[in-house]
Amino acid sequence: MDKIVILTGAGISAESGLGTFRGAGGLWENQRIEDVATPEGFARDPQMVIDFYNMRRGKHREVQPNAAHLALAHLQASYPGEVVIVTQNVDRLHERGGASAVIHMHGVLDALLCNACGHRWGWPFERRLDLATACPRCADAPTRPDVVWFGEMPYHMEEIEAHLTGCDLFVAIGTSGQVYPAAGFVRAADQAGADTLEINLEASAVRSDFARAIIGPASQTVPAWVDALLRHRV
Ligand code: OAD
């Protein structure tokens, strides 16, 4: 049976009400990446970083998975082959939409990481982050969100690379193709002989690396693509 690897980005959660990063109204328009998404920014002003993540965590509590998240969960449950979801998103909308074993390569909003000892632990959305939150293992404080920042290595890279070299179809959904290593996954899959498909609101920066593309809002394009795939292959 075929194996499908799906990479998602901020665009899949946009219609749920979570902002994307780039473009008009994106998170990086009002906030300097160096201030809130780098280890140096956290060392300089941890309160500013914690406020930024409390804002994002608060927003997460107000939103729901959309038809694209639900369609991917349906695909995972119904496809006779294997469907692996790798996401750059730190939200939990794939899981809340019913998806399983989601690989969060940029970490998650509902966990903390200790800079001193590397311990990682869950921190439910209902609780606020603050400077006094100490590591339960080594008592170091302040602790940081368990989110991969610029200049840091994404999580699960070996596992992802193994999935890419063993897949028959690679699909990227709602990602601008501007951040590596994720933007390079299409090439790895292509070199391994997989078919490649981009589903996005507009052509991404790496559009020419894909064999084909579907352009449009994810809440419409993804359910339609899943329906067609299940009709033809099941
Ligand atoms: P971006 O904000 O860079 O790109 C979002 C993409 O989604 C754009 O190409 C949009 O055109 C597209 N898009 C917007 N609305 C859409 C919709 N309704 N349906 C389909 N597509 C839509 O977000 P990412 O590519 O996810 O990293 O960004 C990658 C990484 O950069 C993030 O994980 C984050 C960020 O800095 C870290 O924080 C480490």
Tell me what you see in this structure.
This protein has 10 helices and 9 strands. By secondary structure, the chain is of the alpha/beta class. A 6-stranded parallel beta sheet has the order 3-2-1-7-8-9, with helices on both faces. A 3-stranded antiparallel beta sheet has the order 5-4-6, covered by helices on one side. It has 2 domains: 1-18 and 64-106 and 154-234, 3-Layer(aba) Sandwich (Rossmann fold), CATH 3.40.50; 19-62 and 108-147, SIR2/SIRT2 'Small Domain', CATH 3.30.1600.10. It has helices spanning 11-14, 27-30, 33-36, 39-44, 46-60, 67-78, 93-96, 157-165, 185-191, 218-233; strands at residues 3-8, 82-87, 103-104, 107-113, 120-122, 144-147, 169-173, 195-200, 212-215. The mean pLDDT is 95.
CATH superfamily of the largest domain: TPP-binding domain
Low-confidence stretches: none
Mean pLDDT: 95
CATH architecture of the largest domain: 3-Layer(aba) Sandwich
Ends distance: 11 Å
Give the spatial strand order of the biggest sheet. 3-2-1-7-8-9
| Highest-level CATH class of the largest domain | Alpha Beta
Q: Globular, elongated, flat, extended or rod-shaped: what is the shape?
A: globular
Helix percentage range? 25-40%
What characteristics describe this protein?
alpha/beta; SIR2/SIRT2 'Small Domain'; globular; 3-stranded antiparallel beta sheet; binds 2'-O-acetyl adenosine-5-diphosphoribose; 10 helices; Rossmann fold; 6-stranded parallel beta sheet; 234 residues
Task: Lay out the secondary structure.
Layout: E1 3-8, H1 11-14, H2 27-30, H3 33-36, H4 39-44, H5 46-60, H6 67-78, E2 82-87, H7 93-96, E3 103-104, E4 107-113, E5 120-122, E6 144-147, H8 157-165, E7 169-173, H9 185-191, E8 195-200, E9 212-215, H10 218-233
Parallel strand pairs: 1-2, 1-7, 2-3, 7-8, 8-9
Antiparallel strand pairs: 4-5, 4-6
The structure holds 2'-O-acetyl adenosine-5-diphosphoribose.
The site of 2'-O-acetyl adenosine-5-diphosphoribose has 24 residues, from helix 1.
